[in-house]
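Appendix B, record 7
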Amino acid sequence: MYNETIDASNKIITSEDLQEIFSKINEEMINLQNLSREEELRNQNIERENQTWTYKDYSNNFKCTFNFYDSTTITVDNYDGFINLYNDRLTEIKDMWVRCSLWYYHGVGYHTEQVHNSISLGIYNHKMDIETNLSSSDIHLNSVYELLKNKILNAPERYDDIIKNKNKISSKIGFAIGMIPSLIICTLLAIIPIVRNLYGMTFVLYPIVTAIFGFLIGNTLFRGGIDKLYSYIEPEKKYEGWDDTNSKAIYKDDINKFTSKSEILIGKNVNNLNIRNQIRELYEKYNKYIPTEIMILVALSVIMIVVGKLL
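Structure tokens (predicted):
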């Protein structure tokens, strides 16, 4: 027998991953039950001392306790009721505790020994505690253990590029969106003679004003949407000290705390992976705008010089 705890910190475990693990547990419980019945039929006409057993007197116990955000607690002791409740109230689950235990005897004739295997899963929105107590000779729950281990080892990291590059992503999206109205407004301002003359005096005035104005518009008017998406997945802030110059407290992302926890996609975290994908799609979309906007800015800058000098 051996015991092992699998570390799931800084991992994103999806609800689909969990369901696949639960399904594997149920599959192996059914397989063992069928194998035990086959052995009973095979041994019923054989003398006791000659009987060979791998899964004699097999029994199992499956139980799950759900805690919901509405402060209700439900305990289920059968798989079908459990999986139905899991799927129906996935967004309401605060935490859950799942345990599967198996008992059987193996050996020959009168010389048999009991085997007891168990897997316990403590599942919270910020961590996943996995404890196993398995016999190395049991391929069934060991296959569940291997699936658990592979799901965790191959799970995406919580502290990913979306979190690491938050400022760059937010700024670029805001800038790309803000440049569209900025180009229009700054170009229309050329109608005013004094502005037109200023544009004509130097090549850098129009692009600098347009770029600054685009940044301000984007980060003032349009950044709220991306910041709202980030509010669901970003690290908590920790106090870093006091800024005497600006007379305010300094807070920074608590990366150590963030990476020490998991992100289990149940309850309030159900849509977190979709939010990450949405942020990535927005970044890829608007990042493509910037080269085109820069080319337009350069072309308009030349036009502003010509117009400013001729009119």
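Remarks on this record: The two ends are 90 Å apart (CA to CA). The longest strand covers residues 52-68.
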